[in-house]
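The material for today's practical consists of a large collection of protein records. Getting from the letters to the tokens is the skill we practise here. To make this concrete, we reproduce a full record directly below:
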Amino acid sequence: ADLGSFTCKSGVSTRGDCSGEHNVRARLNTGTPVVRNLFYPMRDSTCMSEPLALDIDGTITTPDGRIDPRAVSMLHKWEEPVLLATGMALPYPVVLCRFLGIPELVVAENGGAVYIDGEVHAESGRKQAWKVIDKFRERGGSTGWERDSSINRWRTTEAVVSSQGNERVLCAVAGGCGPRVFFTGYFVHITGPRVS
């Protein structure tokens, strides 16, 4: 899907008179954070003139996983579109946008699923991911939860295994199937080869 002016660049993004202290981390399918901080007062309005892509976990949440009220307040002040980019299953960030009162602009499942203008654009990969997980289980591997748990139930492009899952074995199993296996700090993700 065309995300228009949503662009992620490596390193710290600053604009106008904004300094690096005005940055909040955001990731959009690059693995490299784009940094902006909503929680410091802005020096001038040019700091808020670009669309903003934000991760959810650890960016607009507190350390215990709750939405930070400061983020909600600043998101409503942001003049341009805000896009939530996350490794979560697609329904979660879409509903979060609704609760936050911001437009439903979402990149989910580590870039595998995009929700813009009421339409879902998704890469295939879910069936391949489950083939890898089934082979992993045949080898004695544990995913950390049942197949129909809420962690994986609504994922459209991937499946995830608990961080306790043996990533090396999953990679070996996936080698013959084509899916990618990677650890995000929360889960081990198994996704289609075109998702990065």
Notes: Strands lie at 25-26, 34-35, 52-54, 82-85, 106-108, 113-116, 119-122, 158-162, 180-183, 187-191. Confidence is low (pLDDT under 50) at residues 1-48.
